Automatic annotation (TrEMBL):
Keywords: Acyltransferase, Amino-acid biosynthesis, Branched-chain amino acid biosynthesis, Cytoplasm, Leucine biosynthesis, Manganese, Metal-binding, Transferase. InterPro entries: 2-IPM_HCS-like (IPR050073), 2-isopropylmalate_synth_dimer (IPR013709), AIPM/Hcit_synth_CS (IPR002034), Aldolase_TIM (IPR013785), LeuA/HCS_post-cat (IPR054691), LeuA_allosteric_dom_sf (IPR036230), LeuA_bact_synth (IPR005671), PYR_CT (IPR000891). It catalyses: 3-methyl-2-oxobutanoate + acetyl-CoA + H2O = (2S)-2-isopropylmalate + CoA + H(+). It comes from Fredinandcohnia quinoae. Residues 391-514 are annotated as: Regulatory domain. GO terms for cellular component: cytoplasm. Residues 4-266 form the Pyruvate carboxyltransferase domain. PANTHER family: 2-ISOPROPYLMALATE SYNTHASE 1, CHLOROPLASTIC-RELATED, HOMOCITRATE SYNTHASE-RELATED. This is 2-isopropylmalate synthase. HAMAP family: LeuA_type1. One of its GO terms (molecular function) is manganese ion binding. Its cofactor is Mn(2+).
Length: 514
């Protein structure tokens, strides 16, 4: 099993993501978490680029004890001097020097001939070697560089004192096979290559950063560079969590391992996402919200019978609590029954079948069925035999721009008695709900109120969703009508009738988790 060093550049290349700017405190938080994750090297920044970056690299160097800390520098003496000032307090100061080697970069950006580039590289590596015990040298845009030129310059910088040679795919251009072949070629043709560690640094412009990194491992590379959540310049860098978990899960194939604490992955990913503001897509491998979510009936049935049918990674491995079964229109009876049981209900086959039909009807209209929806279905099912405690007989609301909204409502209760009340509010809906509260004689707080139209056009039905709370008990209700105020009153009464059903133990409170 070969040990692969993980070089984390979340704080340098990751921070190069458009729109990301981390302050010192945030960088320290991420660095401490990277240490818990146990990466080998943290690239903490680019000290010459700004005073803020300089201070961050310096402070991170002071506090990090269990990983090496490095900083980036151009092949310029003043950049190397800044990096030394920032990094010199570390146990084994390590510099990351880079210089472009592709014809495009040398001609148009550096405006240097290949020979000038070689002498700049050699001179600056020698200069840095007076201070730094470890120098990593990167051939920027190596994957669009001429191979024989790469062989020549790499040989020279190794002789000048570089200990790690990085072959970045700076613009995310190369394919996995070509990248592997490039390393094979360098291993075979650079005469002093055995004196250094070769490193891979991939960008995701064509979506191949992780595959390219793994191809590098297959071809003998011992260091992989990347970022948490794959953030970075343009389309980002290789996602370290994906590389590390791929190596772990496919040890049989790669015969390589990292020293990462894989169970810290989720925590690290969440922290980086929160502090950078870069949201993780739900379908992102390893750390996306859906990475361990099973949605379709056949998969859910398989996983309930034996997890490995559809799970190659156990969620706990990467610090995710558990997998999840998302109930939706593709779910089947096995997952449905399982969730009902988890919620504390026991229903016979007939009840399950009846409820499953209602569930499918609802799932056709709604993307995801939540526990609250399921409980509503269950309660509705239990309540079908019961009479509602209160019925809306009549309602009238007076509203005018120069008057206080007032509602008058008549209800009948189960015993057929009429209850009539009136109250005001700062708006028509509040006047309605104050009046209904008086009618039912309970102190009820409104926790949520949402209104939407069902169908299109001016005559669309109004559908109101209401969540109310009485003491510790919450209940939700829905009401629809052509008029928004009538729909609002019906939704509220529906929620209150459910509350009363709970309170009268038509359905036991424990069953709904109260
Ligand atoms: C592939 C990568 O990710 S490389 C890292 C990229 N990261 C960054 O650029 C973030 C930090 N950068 C910065 O803050 C600024 O660009 C600085 C402070 C480094 C430099 O700023 P400025 O001096 O204003 O130069 P500017 O950024 O406009 O241009 C870059 C200069 O560096 C030169 N340069 C680029 N790479 C190198 C290198 N590896 N070695 C030496 N010189 C280099 C360019 O040719 C250009 O030189 P010129 O001014 O003689 O034409
Ligand atoms: C500085 C270098 C290593 C880099 O980030 C790149 O080439 O992508
Ligand atoms: Mg990069």
């Amino acid at each position: 099993m070969r040990k692969i060093n993980i070089f984390d550049t979340t704080l340098r290349d990751g921070e190069q993501s458009a729109g990301v700017n981390l302050n010192l405190h945030e960088k320290l938080e991420i660095a401490k978490q990277l240490e818990r994750l146990n990466v080998d090297i943290i690239e903490a920044g680019f000290p010459a680029s700004s005073e803020g970056d300089f201070q961050s690299v310096k402070e991170i160097t002071k506090i990090i004890k269990n990983c090496s800390v490095t900083g980036l520098a151009r092949s310029v003496k003043s950049d190397i001097d800044s990096a030394w000032e920032a990094l010199k307090g570390g146990a084994e100061p390590r510099l990351h020097l880079f210089l472009a080697t592709s014809p495009i970069h040398m001609t148009y950006k550096l405006k240097q001939t290949p020979d000038q580039v070689i002498s700049t590289a050699v001179e600056t590596v020698k200069y840095a070697a007076k201070y730094f015990p470890v120098i990593q040298w990167s051939a920027e845009d190596a994957c669009r560089s001429d191979l024989s030129f790469l062989v020549k310059i790499i040989k020279e910088v190794i002789d000048a004192g570089a200990k790690v040679i990085n072959i970045p795919d700076t613009v995310g251009y190369i394919s996995p096979k070509e990248y592997g072949e490039r390393f094979k070629y360098l291993f075979q043709n650079v005469p002093n290559i055995d004196k250094v560690i070769l490193s891979a640094h991939c960008h995701d412009d064509l979506g191949m950063a992780v595959s390219n990194s793994l191809s590098a491992v297959e071809n003998g590379v011992l260091q992989i560079e990347g970022t948490i959540n794959g953030i970075g310049e343009r389309a980002g860098n290789a996602s370290l969590e994906e590389v590390a978990v791929a190596l772990h899960i496919r040890q049989d194939y790669y015969h390589a391992k990292t020293r990462l604490n894989l169970s810290e992955i989720k925590r690290t990913s969440d922290l980086v996402s929160k502090l950078t503001g870069m949201i993780i897509p739900p379908n992102k491998a390893i750390i996306g919200k859906n990475a361990f979510a099973h949605e379709s009936g056949i998969h859910q049935d398989g996983v309930l019978k034996e997890k490995t049918t559809y799970e190659i990674i156990s969620p706990e491995l990467v610090g995710v609590n558990s997998n999840s079964m998302v109930l939706g229109k593709h779910s089947g009876r096995h997952a449905f029954r399982n969730r009902i049981v988890e919620l504390g209900y026991s229903l016979d086959d007939q009840e399950i079948n009846r409820l499953f039909k209602l569930f499918k009807e609802l799932a056709d209209k709604k993307k995801e069925i939540t526990d609250e929806d399921l409980i509503t279905l269950l309660v509705d099912e239990k309540l079908t035999d019961q009479e509602d405690y209160y019925h809306l007989e009549a309602l009238q609301v007076q509203f005018g721009t120069n008057q206080i909204p007032t509602a008058t409502i008549t209800l009948t209760n189960l015993d057929g008695e009429k209850i009539q009340e009136a109250a005001t509010g700062s708006g028509s809906v509040e006047a309605l709900y104050n009046t209904l509260e008086r009618c039912v004689g309970l102190s009820i707080s409104l926790e949520d109120y949402r209104i939407q139209s069902v169908g299109a056009g001016r005559d669309a039905l109004a559908q109101v969703y209401v969540k109310v709370k009485h003491q510790n008990l919450e209940s939700s209700g829905r009401g629809s009508a052509q008029d928004v105020l009538e729909a609002s009153a019906k939704g509220y009464l529906n929620a209150v009738n459910r509350l009363l059903a709970f309170e009268k133990n038509i359905i036991s409170l424990e069953k709904v988790g109260v």
